[in-house]
């Protein structure tokens, strides 16, 4: 069974703080993704990584960066948190690069920036 | 530009009846579609998919229909159960197949 875990379920931070969201998958998947989910906007891709140390911007990368030093771990970094980054953050992983490969999601981190 | 659209943000259905969730897409090059289901405070889970070479795929109570000429797909749940109450997202692979583009989701509520 694929397992994707995220370091925190709920997080409250202040404006301007540096925030780290961690994601770990245990199935040796090549690809990992960070999304945010907002009401009325669905899931939007922030960044993804197809290999260790490799990353690509998604649809809304502004204000975020990522790090993938090990295959199983993908971190999302908010350099200076802002209130418009209050959201549900979802991490996902996928075994290969073909379109029919399923993405497996973690439980999400509800981030509130005050 | 929203390439995958779910125009109904919510749907309410009685237990035992059919639920029909709709999804439209704009890119005729899309050749594979997925439906994900999401409960509150959980990550989305894969539900069912369909390839563009088919017009129907069935898995138990869930059936997805694809109308390529109309660029439209729908998810049918029969019979609907209270445990089906969740947000449903349709999605299509993009960016060479490695990324997914999601619709905005439809909140399904199945009432007793």
Would you kindly provide a written description of the structure presented here, covering whatever features stand out?
The complex is a heterodimer of chains A (114) and B (112). With 114 residues, chain A is mainly β. Chain A has one domain: Immunoglobulin-like. Chain A is 0% helix and 56% strand. Chain A has no helices and 11 strands. Chain A has strands spanning 4-6, 10-13, 19-25, 31-38, 42-51, 54-57, 64-70, 73-78, 87-94, 104-105, 109-113. In chain A, strands 2, 4, 5, 6, 9, 10 and 11 form a 7-stranded mixed sheet that branches. A 4-stranded antiparallel sheet of chain A has the order 1-3-8-7, with no helix packed on it. In chain A, a hairpin with a 2-residue loop joins strand 7 (64-70) and strand 8. Chain A is globular. The model of chain A has no long low-confidence stretch (mean pLDDT 94). With 112 residues, chain B is mostly beta strands. Chain B has a single domain, classed as Sandwich (Immunoglobulin-like). Chain B is built from no helices and 11 strands. Chain B has strands at residues 4-5, 10-14, 19-25, 32-38, 45-51, 56-59, 62-67, 72-77, 86-94, 99-102, 106-111. In chain B, a hairpin with a 4-residue loop joins strand 9 (86-94) and strand 10 (99-102). The mean pLDDT of chain B is 94. Chain A binds chain B through residues 4, 9, 31, 33, 35, 40-45, 48, 50, 58, 90-92, 94, 97-100, 102-108, 110, and chain B through 6, 9, 31-32, 34, 36, 41-46, 49, 51, 89, 91, 93, 96-105.
């Amino acid at each position: 069974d694929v397992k994707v875990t995220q370091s925190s379920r709920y997080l409250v931070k202040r404006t301007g703080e540096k925030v780290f969201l961690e994601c770990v998958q245990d199935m040796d998947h090549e690809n990992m993704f960070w999304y945010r989910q907002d009401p009325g906007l669905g899931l939007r891709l922030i960044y993804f990584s197809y290999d260790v140390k490799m990353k690509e911007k998604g649809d809304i990368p502004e204000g975020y960066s990522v790090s993938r030093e090990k295959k199983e771990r993908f971190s999302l970094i908010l350099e200076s948190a802002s209130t418009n980054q209050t959201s549900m953050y979802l991490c996902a992983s996928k075994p290969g690069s073909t379109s029919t490969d399923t993405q497996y999601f973690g439980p999400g981190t509800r981030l509130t920036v005050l | 530009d929203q390439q995958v659209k779910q125009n109904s943000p919510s749907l309410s259905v009685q237990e035992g009846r059919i639920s029909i969730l709709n999804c439209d897409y704009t890119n005729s090059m899309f050749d594979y579609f997925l439906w994900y289901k999401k409960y509150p405070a959980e990550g989305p889970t894969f539900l069912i998919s369909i390839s563009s070479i088919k017009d129907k795929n069935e898995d138990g109570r869930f059936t997805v229909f694809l109308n390529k000429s109309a660029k439209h797909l729908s998810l049918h749940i029969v019979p609907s159960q209270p445990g089906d109450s969740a947000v449903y997202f349709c999605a299509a692979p993009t960016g060479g197949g490695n990324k997914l583009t999601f619709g905005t989701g439809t909140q399904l509520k199945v009432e007793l």
